[in-house]
Amino acid sequence: MEYKVKFTNVTKKFKMYNKPTDRIKDLFFGGKSGEYHYALRNVSFEIEKGEIVGIIGLNGSGKSTLSNLISGVTLPNEGETEVNGTAALIAIAAGLDIRLTGLENIELKGLMMGLTKKEIKEIIPKVIEFAEIGKFMNQPVKTYSSGMKSRLGFAISVNIDPDILVIDEALSVGDPTFTKRCLDKMNEFKEEGKTIFFISHSLGQVRDFCTKGLWIHYGKVKEFGEINDVADHYQEFLTHYNKLTPAEREKDRELALTQES
Ligand SMILES: Nc1ncnc2c1ncn2[C@@H]1O[C@H](COP(=O)(O)OP(=O)(O)OP(=O)(O)O)[C@@H](O)[C@H]1O
């Protein structure tokens, strides 16, 4: 079967230091300070072309790390990621250079995604029309609100027309009008048979939009399958989890993190 994205035993870890000086020591004395924190551990899954995958899980479970790996923003420490086609990431805080204007960001992202100057010129009016941020297009992105950044990021990514769209919480800061337009655009992509990864804490949106669900729990795949099954099980887990005290939740987290996969 033709697959668009395949992860095999992917692990991503970050070094954590107790003191800033430990980070410097590490640089000079060969990585002996600090401890590894595993954002993802032994993650495997295979997505066919045209699948719409909802990625769900608690805060800090590894969803954004996964979206960065799918879109090639970061590389795994172990394991293999195979991504067939161009992947564009839409995230609230990623992909835009805040020192540049909106217009300059369109050019930059276009070049990064391999578009020619002519192609970039062609998409600029479409991005301006979709983003609807008016004269702010000529202002540095650092002056934008979160919603405006999301509008620009979304408008650029969908107009670049990638094979794979990775949407990381970008809809959560849009106003209802913009969110509706994004969902319409995502549906268009869905009908065209593109592959979409959709990260959201809104189980309603995920159920409505996705075909598959990938539940990430403290860095590991807890469940991968039909969206309604995965969302039902995650919902049941949340009902139980919400009844725990903060101390019990912390114990649960510690236990999950120390368990070997
Ligand atoms: N650059 C980094 N350096 C150190 N730790 C990181 C880094 N990026 C992510 N992490 C850690 O990896 C874990 C997973 O983070 P990630 O952002 O992927 O979670 P998430 O599921 O997207 O969370 P949320 O729902 O809050 O957005 C967290 O414990 C986070 O602190």
From TrEMBL:
Occurrences of domain ABC transporter (ranges): 22-243
SUPFAM superfamilies per record: P-loop containing nucleoside triphosphate hydrolases
UniProt keyword terms in alphabetical order: ATP-binding, Cell membrane, Membrane, Nucleotide-binding, Translocase, Transport
Record-level Gene Ontology MF annotations: ABC-type transporter activity; ATP binding; ATP hydrolysis activity
PROSITE patterns xrefs: ABC_TRANSPORTER_1, ABC_TRANSPORTER_2
GO cellular component: membrane
Family from the record: Belongs to the ABC transporter superfamily.
Record's protein name: Teichoic acids export ABC transporter ATP-binding subunit TagH
